[in-house]
Request: fold
Amino acid sequence: MTTVDASPLGRKLRAFVALSDVEFAVLSRLHQRRRSFAAGHALLHQGHSQRSAYILASGWACSYKTLPTGTRQIVDFQIPGDILGLRSVLLQASDHFIEALTDIEVSEVLPSELFEAFRETPRLAAAVLWAASRDEAVVVEHMIDIGRRSAEERVAHFLLEMGFRLSLVGLADKTGYPCPLSQFHLADALGLSAVHVNRVLRKLREDGLVTFRRGNVHFDDPGGLIAFADFDTAYLDQERPLLQ
Amino acid sequence: MTTVDASPLGRKLRAFVALSDVEFAVLSRLHQRRRSFAAGHALLHQGHSQRSAYILASGWACSYKTLPTGTRQIVDFQIPGDILGLRSVLLQASDHFIEALTDIEVSEVLPSELFEAFRETPRLAAAVLWAASRDEAVVVEHMIDIGRRSAEERVAHFLLEMGFRLSLVGLADKTGYPCPLSQFHLADALGLSAVHVNRVLRKLREDGLVTFRRGNVHFDDPGGLIAFADFDTAYLDQERPLLQ
DNA sequence: CGTTAGTTTGATGGTCCTCAAGCACTGTGG
DNA sequence: CCACAGTGCTTGAGGACCATCAAACTAACG
Reply:
Protein backbone atom coordinates (compact mmCIF):
# COMPACT_ATOMS: atom_id res chain seq x y z
CA MET A 1 0.00 0.00 0.00
CA THR A 2 2.92 2.31 0.51
CA THR A 3 3.32 2.57 -3.24
CA VAL A 4 -0.03 4.26 -3.54
CA ASP A 5 0.36 6.28 -0.40
CA ALA A 6 3.57 7.65 -1.80
CA SER A 7 2.12 8.34 -5.26
CA PRO A 8 0.90 11.85 -5.96
CA LEU A 9 -2.03 10.44 -7.95
CA GLY A 10 -3.20 8.35 -5.00
CA ARG A 11 -3.08 11.44 -2.83
CA LYS A 12 -5.08 13.39 -5.38
CA LEU A 13 -7.76 10.76 -5.90
CA ARG A 14 -8.19 10.17 -2.18
CA ALA A 15 -9.30 13.77 -1.98
CA PHE A 16 -12.34 12.74 -3.98
CA VAL A 17 -13.19 9.19 -2.94
CA ALA A 18 -12.27 7.30 0.20
CA LEU A 19 -10.54 4.39 -1.53
CA SER A 20 -10.96 0.91 -0.12
CA ASP A 21 -8.14 -1.64 0.17
CA VAL A 22 -9.25 -3.31 -3.03
CA GLU A 23 -9.33 0.00 -4.85
CA PHE A 24 -5.89 0.82 -3.49
CA ALA A 25 -4.61 -2.46 -4.82
CA VAL A 26 -6.07 -1.81 -8.26
CA LEU A 27 -4.51 1.63 -8.31
CA SER A 28 -1.16 0.17 -7.27
CA ARG A 29 -1.28 -2.21 -10.16
CA LEU A 30 -1.59 0.76 -12.52
CA HIS A 31 1.73 2.00 -11.16
CA GLN A 32 3.65 -1.13 -12.09
CA ARG A 33 5.21 -0.22 -15.40
CA ARG A 34 7.67 2.47 -14.39
CA ARG A 35 9.54 4.37 -17.11
CA SER A 36 11.85 7.35 -17.43
CA PHE A 37 12.10 9.89 -20.23
CA ALA A 38 14.63 12.63 -20.90
CA ALA A 39 13.69 16.28 -21.18
CA GLY A 40 12.35 16.99 -24.65
CA HIS A 41 11.04 13.47 -25.25
CA ALA A 42 7.67 13.43 -27.01
CA LEU A 43 5.28 11.05 -25.27
CA LEU A 44 2.47 11.65 -27.68
CA HIS A 45 2.22 12.81 -31.29
CA GLN A 46 -0.66 14.82 -32.70
CA GLY A 47 -2.63 12.69 -35.13
CA HIS A 48 -1.23 9.35 -34.02
CA SER A 49 -3.46 6.80 -32.43
CA GLN A 50 -2.25 6.17 -28.98
CA ARG A 51 -1.67 3.08 -26.95
CA SER A 52 -0.89 4.34 -23.46
CA ALA A 53 -1.65 6.90 -20.81
CA TYR A 54 0.94 7.87 -18.22
CA ILE A 55 0.81 8.84 -14.59
CA LEU A 56 3.45 11.47 -13.95
CA ALA A 57 5.57 10.68 -10.87
CA SER A 58 8.27 13.35 -11.11
CA GLY A 59 9.21 16.23 -13.39
CA TRP A 60 7.19 18.56 -15.60
CA ALA A 61 5.51 17.93 -18.94
CA CYS A 62 3.32 20.00 -21.22
CA SER A 63 0.53 19.34 -23.69
CA TYR A 64 0.18 21.53 -26.75
CA LYS A 65 -1.27 21.83 -30.21
CA THR A 66 0.42 23.31 -33.24
CA LEU A 67 -0.98 25.33 -36.11
CA PRO A 68 0.14 25.18 -39.74
CA THR A 69 1.59 28.67 -39.35
CA GLY A 70 4.16 27.19 -37.00
CA THR A 71 2.85 28.82 -33.84
CA ARG A 72 1.84 26.62 -30.99
CA GLN A 73 -0.52 26.85 -28.06
CA ILE A 74 0.45 25.14 -24.84
CA VAL A 75 -2.79 23.81 -23.37
CA ASP A 76 -1.53 22.93 -19.92
CA PHE A 77 1.51 21.94 -17.94
CA GLN A 78 1.52 18.63 -16.09
CA ILE A 79 3.15 18.15 -12.72
CA PRO A 80 3.51 15.08 -10.49
CA GLY A 81 0.17 13.40 -9.84
CA ASP A 82 -1.30 14.41 -13.19
CA ILE A 83 -2.42 11.90 -15.79
CA LEU A 84 -0.96 12.32 -19.28
CA GLY A 85 -2.79 11.34 -22.43
CA LEU A 86 -6.06 10.22 -20.86
CA ARG A 87 -8.01 11.90 -23.62
CA SER A 88 -5.97 10.24 -26.33
CA VAL A 89 -6.76 6.81 -24.89
CA LEU A 90 -10.46 7.51 -25.09
CA LEU A 91 -10.61 9.38 -28.37
CA GLN A 92 -9.63 7.72 -31.62
CA ALA A 93 -6.45 9.65 -32.18
CA SER A 94 -4.42 12.10 -30.22
CA ASP A 95 -5.39 15.66 -31.04
CA HIS A 96 -2.36 17.15 -29.33
CA PHE A 97 1.27 16.64 -28.39
CA ILE A 98 2.68 15.80 -24.98
CA GLU A 99 6.32 16.44 -24.26
CA ALA A 100 8.60 16.11 -21.24
CA LEU A 101 9.92 19.52 -20.17
CA THR A 102 12.38 18.07 -17.68
CA ASP A 103 13.63 14.54 -17.16
CA ILE A 104 10.53 12.74 -15.94
CA GLU A 105 9.42 9.49 -14.34
CA VAL A 106 6.05 8.02 -15.23
CA SER A 107 3.95 4.91 -14.83
CA GLU A 108 2.70 3.67 -18.16
CA VAL A 109 -0.93 2.53 -18.19
CA LEU A 110 -2.32 0.52 -21.09
CA PRO A 111 -5.91 1.26 -22.13
CA SER A 112 -6.89 -2.33 -21.38
CA GLU A 113 -5.55 -2.01 -17.84
CA LEU A 114 -7.45 1.22 -17.35
CA PHE A 115 -10.76 -0.20 -18.56
CA GLU A 116 -10.20 -3.38 -16.56
CA ALA A 117 -9.58 -1.25 -13.45
CA PHE A 118 -12.82 0.65 -14.11
CA ARG A 119 -14.69 -2.62 -14.47
CA GLU A 120 -13.33 -3.93 -11.18
CA THR A 121 -13.82 -0.77 -9.15
CA PRO A 122 -16.35 1.72 -10.49
CA ARG A 123 -15.50 4.12 -7.70
CA LEU A 124 -12.04 4.41 -9.18
CA ALA A 125 -13.66 5.30 -12.48
CA ALA A 126 -15.60 8.05 -10.74
CA ALA A 127 -12.36 9.25 -9.14
CA VAL A 128 -10.57 9.35 -12.48
CA LEU A 129 -13.54 11.18 -13.95
CA TRP A 130 -13.22 13.64 -11.10
CA ALA A 131 -9.51 14.13 -11.85
CA ALA A 132 -10.34 14.68 -15.52
CA SER A 133 -12.99 17.23 -14.51
CA ARG A 134 -10.49 19.07 -12.39
CA ASP A 135 -8.03 19.16 -15.29
CA GLU A 136 -10.76 20.57 -17.48
CA ALA A 137 -11.47 23.24 -14.89
CA VAL A 138 -7.81 24.22 -15.11
CA VAL A 139 -8.01 24.40 -18.90
CA VAL A 140 -11.14 26.53 -18.65
CA GLU A 141 -9.50 28.96 -16.26
CA HIS A 142 -6.62 29.04 -18.68
CA MET A 143 -9.06 30.07 -21.37
CA ILE A 144 -10.36 32.92 -19.22
CA ASP A 145 -6.76 34.01 -18.83
CA ILE A 146 -6.28 34.24 -22.55
CA GLY A 147 -9.70 35.58 -23.45
CA ARG A 148 -10.45 38.16 -20.83
CA ARG A 149 -7.42 39.10 -18.73
CA SER A 150 -4.73 41.63 -19.58
CA ALA A 151 -1.26 40.27 -20.20
CA GLU A 152 -0.18 41.31 -16.73
CA GLU A 153 -3.14 39.73 -14.92
CA ARG A 154 -2.70 36.67 -17.09
CA VAL A 155 0.90 36.08 -16.12
CA ALA A 156 0.16 36.78 -12.45
CA HIS A 157 -2.81 34.42 -12.44
CA PHE A 158 -0.87 31.68 -14.12
CA LEU A 159 2.07 31.84 -11.73
CA LEU A 160 -0.32 31.67 -8.78
CA GLU A 161 -2.20 28.73 -10.25
CA MET A 162 0.94 26.70 -10.77
CA GLY A 163 2.00 27.56 -7.22
CA PHE A 164 -1.27 26.31 -5.81
CA ARG A 165 -1.25 23.12 -7.86
CA LEU A 166 2.36 22.40 -6.91
CA SER A 167 1.65 23.03 -3.24
CA LEU A 168 -1.02 20.29 -3.31
CA VAL A 169 1.72 17.78 -4.10
CA GLY A 170 4.29 19.35 -1.80
CA LEU A 171 6.38 21.06 -4.47
CA ALA A 172 5.70 24.70 -3.56
CA ASP A 173 5.21 26.79 -0.46
CA LYS A 174 3.83 30.25 0.09
CA THR A 175 7.10 31.93 -0.86
CA GLY A 176 7.39 30.30 -4.29
CA TYR A 177 8.59 27.25 -6.20
CA PRO A 178 11.25 25.99 -8.59
CA CYS A 179 9.99 26.32 -12.14
CA PRO A 180 11.71 24.91 -15.25
CA LEU A 181 9.77 27.06 -17.70
CA SER A 182 11.36 29.59 -20.03
CA GLN A 183 9.70 32.83 -20.99
CA PHE A 184 8.97 31.18 -24.34
CA HIS A 185 6.95 28.52 -22.53
CA LEU A 186 4.95 31.18 -20.72
CA ALA A 187 4.36 32.97 -24.01
CA ASP A 188 3.11 29.84 -25.77
CA ALA A 189 0.85 29.00 -22.85
CA LEU A 190 -0.62 32.45 -22.38
CA GLY A 191 -1.13 33.51 -25.98
CA LEU A 192 1.53 36.20 -25.83
CA SER A 193 4.85 36.87 -27.50
CA ALA A 194 8.01 36.08 -25.54
CA VAL A 195 9.04 39.72 -25.81
CA HIS A 196 5.88 40.87 -24.16
CA VAL A 197 6.12 38.22 -21.44
CA ASN A 198 9.52 39.64 -20.63
CA ARG A 199 8.17 43.16 -20.28
CA VAL A 200 5.29 41.97 -18.14
CA LEU A 201 7.59 40.01 -15.83
CA ARG A 202 9.74 43.09 -15.39
CA LYS A 203 6.66 45.13 -14.49
CA LEU A 204 5.48 42.58 -11.95
CA ARG A 205 8.97 42.46 -10.45
CA GLU A 206 9.28 46.25 -10.29
CA ASP A 207 5.85 46.46 -8.66
CA GLY A 208 7.14 44.14 -5.97
CA LEU A 209 4.60 41.41 -6.67
CA VAL A 210 6.49 38.39 -8.00
CA THR A 211 9.96 37.54 -9.28
CA PHE A 212 10.44 34.98 -12.05
CA ARG A 213 14.12 34.32 -12.54
CA ARG A 214 16.71 31.61 -12.87
CA GLY A 215 14.29 28.72 -12.69
CA ASN A 216 12.48 30.07 -9.67
CA VAL A 217 9.22 31.81 -8.95
CA HIS A 218 9.26 33.92 -5.81
CA PHE A 219 6.13 35.56 -4.46
CA ASP A 220 7.33 38.92 -3.14
CA ASP A 221 3.85 40.01 -2.13
CA PRO A 222 1.48 37.02 -2.20
CA GLY A 223 -1.53 38.96 -0.98
CA GLY A 224 -1.03 41.77 -3.44
CA LEU A 225 -0.50 39.34 -6.28
CA ILE A 226 -3.66 37.38 -5.45
CA ALA A 227 -5.67 40.60 -5.35
CA PHE A 228 -4.14 41.88 -8.56
CA ALA A 229 -4.77 38.64 -10.47
CA ASP A 230 -8.20 38.08 -8.95
CA PHE A 231 -7.07 34.59 -8.06
CA ASP A 232 -9.71 32.32 -6.53
CA THR A 233 -8.81 28.72 -5.75
CA ALA A 234 -12.41 27.49 -5.97
CA TYR A 235 -11.81 25.72 -9.25
CA LEU A 236 -8.86 23.81 -7.78
CA ASP A 237 -10.28 23.04 -4.39
CA GLN A 238 -10.50 19.67 -2.77
CA GLU A 239 -11.31 20.03 0.87
CA ARG A 240 -12.82 16.69 1.69
CA PRO A 241 -13.78 13.51 -0.14
CA LEU A 242 -17.10 13.79 -1.92
CA LEU A 243 -17.80 10.06 -2.00
CA GLN A 244 -17.39 8.22 1.31
CA MET B 1 -35.44 1.17 -25.71
CA THR B 2 -36.83 3.70 -28.08
CA THR B 3 -36.28 6.37 -25.46
CA VAL B 4 -32.56 5.87 -25.66
CA ASP B 5 -32.52 5.36 -29.39
CA ALA B 6 -34.27 8.66 -29.76
CA SER B 7 -32.02 10.48 -27.30
CA PRO B 8 -29.11 12.43 -28.73
CA LEU B 9 -26.96 11.33 -25.78
CA GLY B 10 -27.59 7.67 -26.49
CA ARG B 11 -26.58 8.27 -30.08
CA LYS B 12 -23.42 10.02 -28.98
CA LEU B 13 -22.37 7.38 -26.44
CA ARG B 14 -23.01 4.52 -28.82
CA ALA B 15 -20.32 6.03 -31.00
CA PHE B 16 -17.88 5.13 -28.27
CA VAL B 17 -19.15 1.92 -26.70
CA ALA B 18 -21.47 -0.72 -28.08
CA LEU B 19 -24.03 -0.56 -25.28
CA SER B 20 -25.69 -3.78 -24.12
CA ASP B 21 -29.39 -4.08 -23.29
CA VAL B 22 -28.66 -3.67 -19.60
CA GLU B 23 -26.59 -0.56 -20.26
CA PHE B 24 -29.34 0.81 -22.46
CA ALA B 25 -31.80 0.27 -19.67
CA VAL B 26 -29.59 2.08 -17.16
CA LEU B 27 -29.18 4.95 -19.56
CA SER B 28 -32.95 5.11 -20.10
CA ARG B 29 -33.45 5.40 -16.37
CA LEU B 30 -31.26 8.49 -16.38
CA HIS B 31 -33.70 10.08 -18.80
CA GLN B 32 -36.74 9.70 -16.54
CA ARG B 33 -36.95 13.08 -14.88
CA ARG B 34 -37.89 15.31 -17.79
CA ARG B 35 -37.96 19.06 -17.26
CA SER B 36 -38.38 22.25 -19.31
CA PHE B 37 -36.78 25.64 -18.80
CA ALA B 38 -37.40 28.96 -20.47
CA ALA B 39 -34.74 30.89 -22.33
CA GLY B 40 -32.60 32.82 -19.88
CA HIS B 41 -33.11 30.40 -16.99
CA ALA B 42 -29.94 29.77 -14.98
CA LEU B 43 -29.46 26.07 -14.39
CA LEU B 44 -26.32 26.50 -12.37
CA HIS B 45 -24.83 29.29 -10.31
CA GLN B 46 -21.11 29.94 -9.92
CA GLY B 47 -20.05 29.18 -6.36
CA HIS B 48 -23.13 27.17 -5.41
CA SER B 49 -22.82 23.52 -4.59
CA GLN B 50 -24.84 21.60 -7.05
CA ARG B 51 -27.25 18.73 -6.79
CA SER B 52 -27.96 17.78 -10.39
CA ALA B 53 -26.57 17.33 -13.83
CA TYR B 54 -28.76 17.60 -16.92
CA ILE B 55 -28.86 15.88 -20.25
CA LEU B 56 -29.90 18.37 -22.90
CA ALA B 57 -32.68 17.07 -25.14
CA SER B 58 -33.59 20.16 -27.14
CA GLY B 59 -32.50 23.79 -27.37
CA TRP B 60 -29.19 25.58 -26.76
CA ALA B 61 -27.44 26.43 -23.51
CA CYS B 62 -24.13 27.99 -22.64
CA SER B 63 -21.61 27.72 -19.81
CA TYR B 64 -19.65 30.77 -18.78
CA LYS B 65 -17.60 32.38 -16.06
CA THR B 66 -17.70 36.00 -15.00
CA LEU B 67 -14.95 38.28 -13.80
CA PRO B 68 -15.28 41.01 -11.15
CA THR B 69 -14.82 43.60 -13.89
CA GLY B 70 -18.19 42.53 -15.26
CA THR B 71 -16.88 40.92 -18.42
CA ARG B 72 -17.67 37.32 -19.03
CA GLN B 73 -16.13 34.47 -20.95
CA ILE B 74 -18.41 31.91 -22.52
CA VAL B 75 -16.65 28.59 -22.20
CA ASP B 76 -18.81 26.54 -24.50
CA PHE B 77 -22.26 26.23 -25.99
CA GLN B 78 -24.26 23.08 -25.34
CA ILE B 79 -26.54 21.52 -27.90
CA PRO B 80 -28.82 18.46 -27.77
CA GLY B 81 -26.96 15.38 -26.58
CA ASP B 82 -24.56 17.32 -24.38
CA ILE B 83 -24.37 16.86 -20.63
CA LEU B 84 -24.72 20.01 -18.52
CA GLY B 85 -23.06 20.45 -15.15
CA LEU B 86 -21.18 17.17 -15.02
CA ARG B 87 -18.15 18.91 -13.60
CA SER B 88 -20.17 20.61 -10.89
CA VAL B 89 -21.51 17.24 -9.70
CA LEU B 90 -18.00 15.93 -9.28
CA LEU B 91 -16.30 19.02 -7.94
CA GLN B 92 -17.33 20.50 -4.62
CA ALA B 93 -18.94 23.61 -6.01
CA SER B 94 -19.80 24.89 -9.40
CA ASP B 95 -17.05 27.08 -10.80
CA HIS B 96 -19.19 28.45 -13.59
CA PHE B 97 -22.69 29.37 -14.70
CA ILE B 98 -24.96 27.46 -17.05
CA GLU B 99 -27.84 29.23 -18.70
CA ALA B 100 -30.52 28.29 -21.20
CA LEU B 101 -30.14 30.35 -24.40
CA THR B 102 -33.42 29.16 -25.86
CA ASP B 103 -36.32 27.32 -24.29
CA ILE B 104 -34.86 23.92 -23.51
CA GLU B 105 -35.83 20.42 -22.50
CA VAL B 106 -33.57 18.40 -20.26
CA SER B 107 -33.44 15.22 -18.25
CA GLU B 108 -32.35 15.90 -14.71
CA VAL B 109 -29.86 13.41 -13.29
CA LEU B 110 -29.12 13.27 -9.57
CA PRO B 111 -25.52 12.59 -8.57
CA SER B 112 -26.62 9.45 -6.70
CA GLU B 113 -28.28 8.13 -9.86
CA LEU B 114 -25.17 8.84 -11.87
CA PHE B 115 -22.85 7.07 -9.42
CA GLU B 116 -25.28 4.19 -9.10
CA ALA B 117 -25.35 3.88 -12.89
CA PHE B 118 -21.55 3.82 -12.96
CA ARG B 119 -21.52 1.12 -10.30
CA GLU B 120 -23.93 -1.03 -12.25
CA THR B 121 -22.36 -0.61 -15.67
CA PRO B 122 -18.72 0.48 -15.69
CA ARG B 123 -18.79 0.62 -19.46
CA LEU B 124 -21.27 3.43 -19.19
CA ALA B 125 -18.81 5.21 -16.91
CA ALA B 126 -16.15 4.82 -19.58
CA ALA B 127 -18.59 6.18 -22.14
CA VAL B 128 -19.40 9.22 -20.03
CA LEU B 129 -15.68 9.75 -19.46
CA TRP B 130 -15.31 9.63 -23.21
CA ALA B 131 -18.03 12.23 -23.65
CA ALA B 132 -16.35 14.43 -21.05
CA SER B 133 -13.04 14.02 -22.88
CA ARG B 134 -14.64 15.09 -26.11
CA ASP B 135 -16.11 18.16 -24.45
CA GLU B 136 -12.70 18.99 -23.12
CA ALA B 137 -11.24 18.64 -26.62
CA VAL B 138 -13.80 21.22 -27.76
CA VAL B 139 -12.81 23.58 -24.97
CA VAL B 140 -9.16 23.13 -25.87
CA GLU B 141 -9.79 23.94 -29.52
CA HIS B 142 -11.72 26.94 -28.29
CA MET B 143 -8.61 27.99 -26.39
CA ILE B 144 -6.52 27.73 -29.56
CA ASP B 145 -9.07 29.97 -31.24
CA ILE B 146 -8.63 32.64 -28.64
CA GLY B 147 -4.91 32.28 -28.12
CA ARG B 148 -3.50 31.88 -31.57
CA ARG B 149 -6.00 32.66 -34.32
CA SER B 150 -6.84 36.05 -35.77
CA ALA B 151 -10.35 37.36 -35.14
CA GLU B 152 -11.41 36.36 -38.63
CA GLU B 153 -10.04 32.81 -38.45
CA ARG B 154 -11.52 32.52 -34.98
CA VAL B 155 -15.06 33.35 -36.04
CA ALA B 156 -14.79 31.14 -39.12
CA HIS B 157 -13.45 28.22 -37.11
CA PHE B 158 -16.13 28.58 -34.47
CA LEU B 159 -19.00 28.65 -36.96
CA LEU B 160 -17.64 25.53 -38.65
CA GLU B 161 -17.23 23.73 -35.34
CA MET B 162 -20.80 24.38 -34.28
CA GLY B 163 -21.96 23.25 -37.70
CA PHE B 164 -20.09 19.99 -37.40
CA ARG B 165 -21.30 19.34 -33.86
CA LEU B 166 -24.88 20.11 -34.83
CA SER B 167 -24.69 17.86 -37.87
CA LEU B 168 -23.79 14.91 -35.61
CA VAL B 169 -27.20 15.25 -33.97
CA GLY B 170 -29.03 16.05 -37.19
CA LEU B 171 -29.42 19.80 -36.62
CA ALA B 172 -27.23 21.08 -39.44
CA ASP B 173 -26.37 20.16 -42.98
CA LYS B 174 -23.60 21.24 -45.32
CA THR B 175 -25.32 24.46 -46.25
CA GLY B 176 -25.74 25.76 -42.70
CA TYR B 177 -27.88 25.68 -39.58
CA PRO B 178 -30.29 27.74 -37.46
CA CYS B 179 -28.37 29.51 -34.73
CA PRO B 180 -29.92 31.45 -31.83
CA LEU B 181 -26.72 33.29 -30.93
CA SER B 182 -26.35 37.06 -31.04
CA GLN B 183 -23.14 38.81 -31.99
CA PHE B 184 -22.69 39.51 -28.28
CA HIS B 185 -22.66 35.77 -27.63
CA LEU B 186 -20.01 35.26 -30.28
CA ALA B 187 -17.98 38.09 -28.78
CA ASP B 188 -18.14 36.67 -25.26
CA ALA B 189 -17.21 33.22 -26.51
CA LEU B 190 -14.34 34.28 -28.75
CA GLY B 191 -12.68 36.90 -26.57
CA LEU B 192 -13.62 39.77 -28.89
CA SER B 193 -15.78 42.87 -28.67
CA ALA B 194 -19.22 42.74 -30.27
CA VAL B 195 -18.27 45.61 -32.53
CA HIS B 196 -15.30 43.73 -33.90
CA VAL B 197 -17.35 40.55 -34.35
CA ASN B 198 -19.71 42.58 -36.48
CA ARG B 199 -16.90 43.85 -38.70
CA VAL B 200 -15.45 40.37 -39.04
CA LEU B 201 -18.81 38.89 -40.00
CA ARG B 202 -19.19 41.54 -42.67
CA LYS B 203 -15.75 40.71 -44.04
CA LEU B 204 -16.51 36.98 -44.14
CA ARG B 205 -19.81 37.70 -45.88
CA GLU B 206 -18.22 40.05 -48.41
CA ASP B 207 -15.52 37.47 -49.12
CA GLY B 208 -18.29 35.03 -49.98
CA LEU B 209 -17.37 32.55 -47.26
CA VAL B 210 -20.21 32.51 -44.73
CA THR B 211 -23.32 34.51 -43.90
CA PHE B 212 -24.47 34.92 -40.30
CA ARG B 213 -27.81 36.67 -40.20
CA ARG B 214 -31.29 36.56 -38.74
CA GLY B 215 -30.69 33.46 -36.63
CA ASN B 216 -29.09 31.50 -39.43
CA VAL B 217 -25.61 30.48 -40.44
CA HIS B 218 -25.21 29.82 -44.14
CA PHE B 219 -22.01 28.41 -45.59
CA ASP B 220 -21.62 30.22 -48.91
CA ASP B 221 -18.32 28.52 -49.69
CA PRO B 222 -17.79 25.57 -47.33
CA GLY B 223 -14.51 24.50 -48.87
CA GLY B 224 -13.06 27.97 -48.86
CA LEU B 225 -14.15 28.53 -45.29
CA ILE B 226 -12.62 25.25 -44.09
CA ALA B 227 -9.36 26.15 -45.79
CA PHE B 228 -9.38 29.67 -44.44
CA ALA B 229 -10.08 28.58 -40.86
CA ASP B 230 -7.75 25.58 -41.00
CA PHE B 231 -10.62 23.48 -39.72
CA ASP B 232 -9.82 19.85 -38.97
CA THR B 233 -12.54 17.63 -37.51
CA ALA B 234 -10.06 15.25 -35.88
CA TYR B 235 -10.82 16.51 -32.39
CA LEU B 236 -14.54 15.92 -32.89
CA ASP B 237 -14.40 12.65 -34.73
CA GLN B 238 -16.23 9.49 -33.81
CA GLU B 239 -16.08 7.07 -36.68
CA ARG B 240 -16.62 3.77 -34.94
CA PRO B 241 -17.04 2.49 -31.38
CA LEU B 242 -13.72 2.12 -29.58
CA LEU B 243 -14.98 -0.45 -27.08
CA GLN B 244 -16.88 -3.40 -28.55
C1' DC C 1 -45.73 53.90 -32.15
C1' DG C 2 -42.66 53.89 -28.38
C1' DT C 3 -39.45 50.57 -26.36
C1' DT C 4 -35.99 47.38 -26.40
C1' DA C 5 -32.54 44.29 -28.13
C1' DG C 6 -29.55 43.73 -31.61
C1' DT C 7 -26.82 45.38 -35.68
C1' DT C 8 -24.02 48.60 -38.27
C1' DT C 9 -20.62 52.13 -39.10
C1' DG C 10 -17.11 55.75 -37.89
C1' DA C 11 -13.23 57.72 -35.17
C1' DT C 12 -9.60 57.27 -31.88
C1' DG C 13 -6.33 55.06 -29.17
C1' DG C 14 -4.09 51.30 -26.40
C1' DT C 15 -2.28 46.78 -25.99
C1' DC C 16 0.57 43.77 -27.70
C1' DC C 17 3.05 41.99 -32.00
C1' DT C 18 7.04 42.08 -35.05
C1' DC C 19 11.51 43.12 -36.24
C1' DA C 20 16.00 44.06 -34.67
C1' DA C 21 19.99 44.19 -31.91
C1' DG C 22 22.64 43.65 -27.77
C1' DC C 23 23.56 41.13 -23.43
C1' DA C 24 24.33 37.18 -20.07
C1' DC C 25 25.22 32.71 -19.08
C1' DT C 26 26.68 27.84 -20.20
C1' DG C 27 28.99 24.36 -22.30
C1' DT C 28 32.39 22.90 -25.95
C1' DG C 29 36.52 22.39 -28.39
C1' DG C 30 40.95 24.34 -29.89
C1' DC D 1 42.56 29.66 -21.04
C1' DC D 2 39.98 31.60 -24.44
C1' DA D 3 37.17 31.86 -28.83
C1' DC D 4 32.66 30.35 -30.13
C1' DA D 5 28.14 28.81 -30.39
C1' DG D 6 23.81 28.13 -28.38
C1' DT D 7 20.11 29.34 -25.55
C1' DG D 8 17.54 32.45 -23.19
C1' DC D 9 16.88 37.25 -21.50
C1' DT D 10 16.49 42.29 -22.24
C1' DT D 11 15.44 46.59 -24.40
C1' DG D 12 14.02 49.78 -28.30
C1' DA D 13 11.15 51.40 -32.29
C1' DG D 14 7.27 51.12 -35.24
C1' DG D 15 2.93 49.48 -36.43
C1' DA D 16 -1.22 46.16 -36.66
C1' DC D 17 -5.08 44.52 -34.58
C1' DC D 18 -8.69 45.07 -31.95
C1' DA D 19 -11.02 47.69 -27.89
C1' DT D 20 -13.64 51.58 -26.64
C1' DC D 21 -16.72 55.28 -27.24
C1' DA D 22 -20.42 57.17 -29.76
C1' DA D 23 -24.36 57.31 -32.61
C1' DA D 24 -27.54 55.91 -36.14
C1' DC D 25 -30.21 52.23 -37.89
C1' DT D 26 -33.33 47.96 -38.06
C1' DA D 27 -36.57 44.59 -36.46
C1' DA D 28 -39.65 42.72 -33.24
C1' DC D 29 -43.18 43.34 -30.08
C1' DG D 30 -46.53 44.99 -27.01
